[in-house]
């Protein structure tokens, strides 16, 4: 290809990208409610012994009838799918998701396996819903972080609103925990904190804000119909604490 042809191809690609972005912005659904980012200042902790824990949070202020409409396992599955869709859109298609029977693969350019997750775990009751993907492997994961100890978890909770009559608050947390970044172990923690970690926070905050539109992607699975089909929600960190307490109790010397 000649330099002139490459130039015109680049211009055409840029125009297509701009056109597609404008079309999306003009046609995207209007906001149904409001999203307030409430992430704590110390939202990310990097402990060499326990890995990275990063939590981003938002309060969605939504009409009561909308909350009632979406509070079911089908929309919990759609929320999970929406997260992956947003990740692809936010990276302009550079990051793509492969849906497999036993998990999800996050790939760069559809080729390079950045992260591999196990099959999602869904938990729900009348006030809380959780979807969790355990981290299996990937080039972004150091060796000590592979095998499912680390996880990505979306936790949604219904809360009453005293300040917004006719509306409810849906508190949403996106947590990554027990994650051992390969960049931190092979290059430096500073590089990880100022590249991959910052990008993750920015993208997650964008995802949380987008939820005010209630524009959920269709689930590719759709396994669950009723809340009774799912176990009660228990965050992964609480599960770990319970297991640790049980092991400590079992190992205690009986009088």
Biggest sheet statistics: 10 strands, antiparallel
CATH topology: Alpha-D-Glucose-1,6-Bisphosphate, Chain A, domain 4
How much β-strand is present in the residues? Answer: 25-35%
Shape: globular
> Per CATH, which architecture?
2-Layer Sandwich
Instruction: Tell me the number of structural domains.
Output: 1
pLDDT under 50 segments (min length 5)?
Answer: none
Would you tell me the overall average pLDDT?
A: 86
State the end-to-end CA separation. Answer: 83 Å
Based on helices, strands and strand pairing, what is the structural class? alpha+beta
Helix content: 25-40%
CATH class, anyone? Answer: Alpha Beta
Order of helices and strands: HEEEHHEEEEEEEHHHH
Radius of gyration: 20 Å
Would you mind describing this structure in some detail?
This protein has 255 residues and is α+β, with helices and mostly antiparallel strands. It has a single domain, classed as Alpha-D-Glucose-1,6-Bisphosphate, Chain A, domain 4 (2-Layer Sandwich), CATH 3.30.530. It contains seven helices and ten strands. Strands 1, 2, 3, 4, 5, 6, 7, 8, 9 and 10 form a ten-stranded antiparallel beta sheet that branches. Helix 3 packs across helix 6. The model has no long low-confidence stretch (mean pLDDT 86).
Lay out the secondary structure.
Blueprint: H1 3-27, E1 34-37, E2 44-47, E3 51-63, H2 64-70, H3 73-90, E4 95-100, E5 103-108, E6 112-118, E7 121-124, E8 128-137, E9 151-160, E10 167-179, H4 182-186, H5 189-193, H6 196-210, H7 236-251
Antiparallel strand pairs: 1-3, 2-3, 3-10, 4-5, 5-6, 6-8, 7-8, 8-9, 9-10
Region (Disordered): 227-255
């Amino acid at each position: 290809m000649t330099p002139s042809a490459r130039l015109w191809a680049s211009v055409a690609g840029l125009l297509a990208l701009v056109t597609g972005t404008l079309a999306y912005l003009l046609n995207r659904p209007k906001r149904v409610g409001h999203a307030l980012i409430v992430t704590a200042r110390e939202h990310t902790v990097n402990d060499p012994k326990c890995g990275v824990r990063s939590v981003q949070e938002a309060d969605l202020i939504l009409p009561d009838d909308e909350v009632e409409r979406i509070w079911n396992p089908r929309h919990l599955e759609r929320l999970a799918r929406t997260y992956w869709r947003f990740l692809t859109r936010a990276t302009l298609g550079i990051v793509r998701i492969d849906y497999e029977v036993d998990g999800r693969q996050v790939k760069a350019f559809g080729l390079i396996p950045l992260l591999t997750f196990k099959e999602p775990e869904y938990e729900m009751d009348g006030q809380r819903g959780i979807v969790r993907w355990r981290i299996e492997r990937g080039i972004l994961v150091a060796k000590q972080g592979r095998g499912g100890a680390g996880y990505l978890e979306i936790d949604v909770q219904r809360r009453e609103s005293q300040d917004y009559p006719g509306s409810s608050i849906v508190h949403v947390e996106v947590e990554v925990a027990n994650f051992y970044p390969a960049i931190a172990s092979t290059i430096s923690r500073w590089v990880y904190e100022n590249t991959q970690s910052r990008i993750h926070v920015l993208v997650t905050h964008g995802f949380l804000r987008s939820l005010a539109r209630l524009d959920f992607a269709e689930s590719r699975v759709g396994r669950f119909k009723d809340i009774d089909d799912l176990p009660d929600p228990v965050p992964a960190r609480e599960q770990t604490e319970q297991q640790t307490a049980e092991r400590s109790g079992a190992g205690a010397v009986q009088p």
